[in-house]
Design a protein that fits this description.
Blueprint lengths: L1 E7 L9 E5 L2 H13 L11 E7 L3
Antiparallel strand pairs: 1-2, 1-3
């Protein structure tokens, strides 16, 4: 099973950087868009916000 993790490592790394874990890329993209729109512009560094796809066991 593949999951998609939305992360923002601007200020934190590890589990503190995880915004959410999603079953589909579409849901992850939607959550990322919501996160960007609801976060102060000067706090987001685009190179530190990402969606990571990873294979996990069920």
């Amino acid at each position: 099973m593949k999951v998609f993790i939305v992360m923002d490592t601007t200020e934190n790394t590890g589990r503190e950087s995880i915004i959410g874990v999603f079953e589909s890329l579409a849901n992850a993209k939607s959550a990322l868009a919501d996160y960007v729109l609801n976060t102060e512009n000067d706090r987001i560094e685009p190179c530190y916000v990402d969606i990571v796809g990873i294979e996990v066991e069920e």
